[in-house]
Write a structure and sequence with these properties.
The chain is mainly alpha-helical and 178 residues long. It is built from 4 helices and 2 strands, in the order H-H-H-E-E-H. It has a two-stranded antiparallel sheet. The longest helix is centred in the middle third of the chain and has 47 residues. The model has no long low-confidence stretch (mean pLDDT 75).
């Protein structure tokens, strides 16, 4: 039992599903299923049936994933062994492999690769009344604003159309006239 706990503790830090970790997972899920069965008998609540199905689905998916990882490892190991055998057979034949096409290296993905095809520049009809054509580019400046700098209207220098201060002044004037 102490070796199992020691193996379980070390398997936590080992990448991939280890046999000790899978045994502990299966025992834990089996115990959880027994608890749900006991609570179902004790309370007759449908909730424990639903929880049991959810638990079973998760239990199955963890075991499926572990088996898929194991299959992938075996496939990789077989491919590596096959590649080593082919290397040794090519060296023995004296064949330098010039008659075969060399494999191209994979192209590195850049930040510009999004996996979708888009048009870079496109002409579209503007929804404004004069129906100008707009060019979609990398900047968001209007076509007629080439280098022109306009001063923004500040909120503090408004004439009172955005503020209610002038309205309060009118109320105070009306109070003083009474």
């Amino acid at each position: 039992m102490t070796t199992f706990i020691t193996d379980l503790f070390t398997s936590i830090f080992t990448p991939g599903p280890t046999p000790t970790l899978l045994v502990a997972t299966n025992v834990s899920f089996a115990a959880l299923q027994l608890v749900f069965l006991f609570l179902l008998i004790l309370t007759s609540s449908i909730h424990f049936v639903v929880l049991s199905f959810l638990c079973a689905g998760l239990w199955w998916s963890i075991n499926w994933f572990a088996s898929e990882l194991e299959t992938a490892k075996r496939f990789e190991k077989a491919r590596e062994e096959k590649g080593k055998v082919e290397e040794h057979s090519n060296e023995d034949d004296g064949d330098d492999g010039d008659d075969e096409e060399p494999r191209r290296p994979r192209r590195e993905r850049t930040a510009d690769d999004s996996g979708t095809e888009t048009e870079g520049r496109e002409e579209r009809v503007s929804p404004v009344g004069d129906r100008r054509r707009l060019h979609v580019g990398t900047t968001l400046q209007p076509e007629d604003a080439e280098g022109e700098i306009r001063k923004r209207r500040s909120l503090g220098s408004s004439t009172g159309d955005l503020s209610t201060d002038s309205e309060w002044d009118k109320v105070e004037e009306a109070d003083t006239q009474r």
